[in-house]
Amino acid sequence: MAGTLRSRLARARDLSRIAREPPPGPEPRGQDRGTAEAAPSGQLAGWTRTAPFVLSRVVRRGNPLPEVLDLRPYLFRPQGRNALGQEWGHLADGPELRLFPAPRLLFLDLETTGLSGGAGTVAFLAGLGRVASGDSAEGFEIRQFLLTDYPGEGAFLDAVLGELGPGTVLASYNGRAFDEPLLRTRCVLNRREWPRYAHADFLPAARRLWRKRFPDCSLGTLETLLLGRSRALDVPGARIPEIWLEYSRRGFHPLMDAVLAHNAADLESLAAVAAECGRMHSNPAEARGCDRTALGSLWLRLEPSKGRAALERAFEDGEERAGWLLLGHYRRGGE
After folding, report:
1. pLDDT for 173-192, tens place per residue?
2. Most buried pick, 49, 55, 132, 228, via CB within 10 A?
3. Is residue 267's pLDDT more than 90?
4. What's the predicted TM-score (pTM) here?
């Protein structure tokens, strides 16, 4: 027992000494992060060291998103309040949500040491995806930050916070219930402030559209059945925490590259699902392959004329529930 304790104390002293050492060369900032020192050879190729115990890389994919999106269906709250706690009507009337530029959406996906949340769960990998704009880059850009050991969590959070800017709207898949609260908790424990942002969670939107068509609405199911994609080699999500824990202890795990690829693929699929949701909501009356009654019911509250047209078309095609919703709508309007 004494030997074990002595070795742990020695490792803690070594980690503390490494954490105090500044990274070689000038501190990278902004878009210059890519010029940071390369990660040690033989560990993770293509990654750069941005701070002690923090690595980063940029992956580019094709962009599935349209130039603008109508975000009202994803920020809608039946109880009358949006993600910022404001009255829904105050935010819904703004044209900035009806023609929201896709580059201002920041797609977020975390890999963590557990799936239950709570103060003991740590985010060790953050994937942040956005539509690249400008002459030097185009497509869908994924920036990933990897925490290699616990002492670097503060710098890891600083890197994530550095990607957030004024006017950003977070986009995720169940991130409003898991990813964002987890980051907020870790910021509190590390004496950082997590700013409040509007958050477009595409899981409720996907359930509204496709829960009657597919066995479930997990991102993996939609990736296969809706997008027609398949991953040649993927690591099970349940194994990801143990892979990172082993990697943080030994500095190596043969499946760590698969975990990083899994996170990037999730972000790519999330953006594609968001594009499919946007296509359905752009013209609800002409939407196909989804629950048009649920779609029309939502738009009946957002834009009654658009929701009514969608429900009428669904009722004409034999969806009885749409007729009952229309009956209530007509009655309330005295028609």
Report:
1. 999 999 999 999 999 999 99
2. 55
3. yes
4. 0.82
